[in-house]
Hints:
single chain, alpha/beta, Rossmann fold, SH3 type barrels, 2 domains, 4-stranded mixed β-sheet, two-stranded parallel ribbon, 6 helices, 10 strands, 26% helix, globular
Amino acid sequence: MVCDAIGAPFYVLNMSTVFREKVIDDFVSEYKAGRTPNPCVKCNSEVRWTAFLRKAVEIGCDYIATGHYAFVERTASGRFFIRKGVDETRDQSYVLWGLTQEELSKTLMPLGALWKSEVREIARKYNLRTAERKESREICFVADDDYRRFVREWEEKRGRQPEQGDIVLENGTVVGRHDGAAFFTIGQRKGLGITHPTPLYVQRLDVGNNRVIVGENDALFKSELIAEDVNWMGMEPTDKPFKADVKIRYMHQPAPATIT
Length: 260
């Protein structure tokens, strides 16, 4: 154990109930609503920085330290914010956007200035068992990385079955059938189970009518979006337009945008 190696107290917290309610239930319900969830965001803001931080305060700690590859910094006005780590192949700032000012004020992220290879070398130096641990980027509660199987089995255990429906073009032409709209994501091409003269991609999910709308690649791209649940981390809320680099997926390259 790492704690044994460095002489630190070791505590075990049972987070199974809150994890199921805040992360897994949300994961399934978001897919059923036609959206693609990021469970790591929910876990960080609803689990790790709630019960974990609460326990740290209870035992007299001033801060919690995490292994995220990111920085916690402070603006001239005193607001805390997350900045990307130096190792962009491991940067985790994206999944930490939901943290509050109070949580950030009590958080340390010592790995932000290190590359993954450097962290492994430090672990080897101190003979930590984690030095050679295999990495995993899959969803921690979906071991085989098959979210469709997970959602299906989760629903079946609760007596719910996915409903079949139509796969249609934007003009309403039916081009195929599906076994459940929750098993599709925007931009998906493979696994549609339909034949067409040109490649088709999932454009949107009409959950109300249980339809999957498909179209050609060019129709996927949009020049604007509406964001919900905004966390004004590094700046005060404003109704004035401003420039920002924006991305909608963890591994996407940020794109310049105007926020209004």
